[in-house]
Amino acid sequence: MSSIVNILLQGVLLGALYALFAMGQSLVFGVMRLTNTAHGDFIVLLVFVLFVLTNLAHMPLWAAVPMLIGIAFCAGYALQYTVLNRVSGRDPLPSLVVTFGLSIVIQNVLQEVFSADPRALATGGFESMSISLPGGIALGLLPILTLAVTVAATLGLQWLFGRTPLGRVFRATSDDREIVQLMGVSPRRTFALAMGIAFVLIALAATLYAMRTAVSPSDGPALLLYAFEAVIIGGMGSFWGTFLGGIALGVAQQIGFYIDPGWGICLGHVLFLALLTIRPQGLLPKTA
Amino acid sequence: MSNHMNVSERHFEIRRATRASRVAVLVLLIVAVLVASFPYWAGRDTLRDFTQIAAYLVFAMMWNLLAGYGGMVSIGQQAYFGIGGYAMLILANYGGLSPFVAVPVAGAIAVLIAAPVSLVAFRLEGGYFAIGTWVIAEVFRLSIANLSWLGGGSGTSLTALQDVPRSLRESLTLWLALAIVVAAIGLLYVFLRSKRGLALTAMRDNAVAANSQGVDVKRARFGVYLVSSGGAALAGGLYFVSNLRISPDAAFSVNWTAFAIFIVMIGGLGTLEGPIIGTLIFFLLNKFLSDFGTWYLIGLGTLAIVVTMFFPQGLWGYVSRRFGLQLFPVGRRVVFLDSGSRVLSARKESADPQHAAH
Prior knowledge:
The structure holds two protein chains of two kinds. Chain A is mostly helical.
């Protein structure tokens, strides 16, 4: 009994990280219908930027993370404004090819500069601290922090989209970018802002991911697939849906790992394909 | 133009071939005969190079059929490349079939697998379809990596060919490669010139408009998906007959699709000529620059980005528009014979998928 509870709890905590991976992707899907195939590689890239800040520039973590978030926002804004805006039209092909090309470039540049070895972030032992629950279940402090950050990010995004003028512009641009342009809103700047915010979420995900495990330059595509699956399982355009999608994926993988370590990832993919077949609109689809 | 409006039917004719296309067919036939005679005079490196080129070319042509004509951008076609390789290996190692016969059978098996897979993949559209197909390819990779009788993650070897003398094996592999390339180019050319091919070209330019003209877009897409999956499996089967060793990571690597995207975008999307030119460029780059490893891949990725952003027609699209050249004319040209020396012609289809899409 307690092992089942344990699997579920660990699955939820793993899923919270996947949900955080997926938040940026969900935002980008929602606002500009852009399929960013380099999403996972951006997470890995920011992990390595964090390594540079902490290990080479010798910044303490509490100073490096805000700096990373600032760098990420500017990088996302600039990337969308200069490159991706030119290819995010109705035809999905140009944006797919350009982001896929970026993915290959990022992986190989990181490998050239940092070698293919995985690297871990030093957290002073924080990643191994845990609290014990009755029944021999131990919950790590880092996964609990991850869950808290993910819930906060979800709440923040819901608030941003539902209650602020910027969120209204995001939703309107998502519905019809031509009409929004007639109202005096620049879709180019709106998209750039959305990508900047997505990159802030990617920076948070990158920080927590680097604390959890060692990261190598070729990890990006796997992270992209988890993020994508969480978005689709949850239903497009709903951040709580994305949150639930990430949790579902994490639990499925954890169950798979328990049955046989070789099948964990695969079971997550199979759950995704099964849900896609029986419920293509996702768990919490946005009712337009 | 008004003096042409009342032209009676006898004063124009429909031309389907061009001088360039007649020359191209002749040149290709000569090249095919030349390649067929390789085993009698060329070195074994040449044989191996051609087989590799053939696998890349056929795989890229099938990706082009899917994305360029069917409008379905996939990052998961490596699923069928790998299925082709593994189906061929299982039939040859365990079924006692000759690997050279097993390759086309593997193509047929891939079509049978693609039919139910499409039910899941077609739930997604556009960019979501692209990543969804990648997930499907990963499921195949991870599943085969868990099968210990197929060598698991470290893979296995094609033992069925160990009794065949090396030179005979290499000659047969070359002829198989040539047969697959000729069949793929020939069948696609004949198909695209047919009525259904015209429907597919219309779909490439604008799926909604084609649908309103009576083209069954859903059925056509299903057909395109099956054919391109079968073709990708032929390429995979061929590659691993030549390679003799297979592993899940090599067979289901996303790099296959990455290379296909590169080849098609450089050469020209939605044309028959594009993948051929793209493959030649890719192969030359690969031959001379792949020693640079990561820098080579960084260059390929950057080139794909630059071409997509600034030359979406690709190399062949540019040449074709600039010089009005068509090596494989699939359209119909109306040539007016009246009005003295002036010969006006109108192409019945757009040679320019990007413009029509916007």
